[in-house]
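User: Can you predict the 3D structure of Shedu protein SduA C-terminal domain-containing protein? Sequence below.
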Amino acid sequence: MINFLKKDDRLILCYTPEYAGSVNWITDTIKAKGLVKLKKTFRYTEGDILNNAEFEETTEIDDYVDPEMEVTTFFRFAELTADYYKVKRGILIDNFDIFIYKNVPLKTNFFVADSDVSVFQVIKNISPNDFYLGGDNPSAVPVEEFEKLLKHFPNSYERRKYVEARLSSLLRNYLEGVKDAEKVYQKYLDTKLFMHGTNLTEIFRNVELVKYQTILEKLREMLKDENQYSEHQWQEEILQIILLLYPKYILAFKSVPIQARLADGIKDKQLDLLLVDSNGYIDVIEIKKPFENAIMTKGVYRENYIPLRELSGTVMQIEKYIYYLNRWSLEGEFFLSKRYKTQLPEGFEIKIANPNGLIIMGRENNLSSQQKNDFEVVKRKYKNIVDIITYDNLLERLHFTIEQFQKI
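Assistant: Sure. Here are the predicted structure tokens for Shedu protein SduA C-terminal domain-containing protein:
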């Protein structure tokens, strides 16, 4: 059994053999080989053994060693330098110095992994630098992180499963009925090797909750009396909401000049709103005030409700804009990147590659279930080009988002 004792400015390793009959094996081994290895990790010579008499008056000793003093051997381990115990080179490793913060409660498994694997012999193969455990040193490894690291050392069971996996992969080429040890080994690794990073959702939960609740309240207030807003003011307000709900978009440009390459020549057109995502790709958005009768007809045509002119006209308009942008292509990318250069990040370029359309318009709260079903058919018809979102759908998305955050 190994324990550590802090005495004066020294850190002492206390070793008590598990069997009384093996008391003399340390001195016998040192005489025969010149050194002894404890748990295949701690290397000691005769000069590192301390006199037991030095500890006879130490009252704390009872917490660390066997009451029979003669069966416990005391070894030098580390000396206090400033706020760190510096481990004597050669005991654990020769390649670099190991510093342990003075208030760190030492455990044997900090140095010896399962089945007597030397932790610092493994670390030596990864880093040649001095190692600081705990404390305020800029390069110190926090104790909590170090303990997590120790969990990744393979134990005897894992090593056995690994050997079996390697053997089974070879023997299956020649023998029938060989156990699929590779699958067993991989299943074991799946349960062991996992990373718990910072829970970002939990960190930003309250902030996001306030954001979405504020947006929901604002949208509800706007919808109570949309007549107090002009078309331009309404677009400005809704655009702010869209940029918050769709974080992929980082910029929005208004009154954007584009060129339409038509059969009878090139004509200048103007987009009301253009969205730019974080990769530079553009999409087209149309924002309409939520007039009550703007989506589906009240009467049926051949047993179906059909889109009103306001909806079908807006879809046609946005499809044309997308058509113009695709034909404008590289020349349009250069023109738009140059025109908005001062508003774009350094080195950022606008790209045109099959833009999508987004339409925000109309209400669903006054539609019958059949009208809503037919409206869904209309939306799915244009889904590959245009996403049609009503204000009631926006309210619903916000409500579900808030509900989900509240469950976290």
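The chain has a mean pLDDT of 86. The chain has three domains: 2-153, 157-192, 201-407.
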